[in-house]
Write a structure and sequence with these properties.
By secondary structure, this protein is an all-alpha fold. It is about 85% helix and about 0% strand. It has one domain. The protein is built from two helices and no strands. Helix 1 runs antiparallel to helix 2.
Length: about 120
């Protein structure tokens, strides 16, 4: 006598599989968010480094221009010019770093607020 097939009952594995998929999806989303955050932080550091190098290159250019325009000045005048350009570059460098850190911190605050509001 042939066996009649019974309708399949849902097994426990079906629910486990769905939960595992949801968990993996959540982990994937979290990893992508963390990767994006690290990328943004690295981008911010690279931008600060580029800004600092730009300020230093500008100061070197100012010194070259001053040496070209004022070739026959006294030693004291050269010291004043070099000191002035160096102080100007240091001030601009400090302002650039301070401004970029403030922008980075405010961006972090916005991202953190979004992250906690999504949870």
């Amino acid at each position: 006598m042939p066996r009649t097939s019974r309708p399949a009952r849902p097994s426990r594995l079906d629910g486990t599989h769905e939960r595992a998929e949801k968990l993996l999806s959540h982990v994937n989303t979290s990893l992508l968010a963390e990767s994006s955050l690290r990328s943004e932080r690295l981008d911010g550091r690279l931008k600060r480094a580029a800004a600092a190098l730009t300020v230093v290159a500008s100061a070197a250019l100012l010194l070259d221009i001053a040496a070209f325009l004022l070739p026959d000045v006294s030693g004291q005048a050269r010291v004043v010019i070099v000191s002035g350009v160096t102080l100007l570059a240091a001030g601009l460098l400090g302002a650039t770093i301070s401004w970029s850190r403030e922008a980075t911190l405010s961006g972090d605050r916005v991202r953190n607020a979004r992250r906690y509001s999504d949870s």
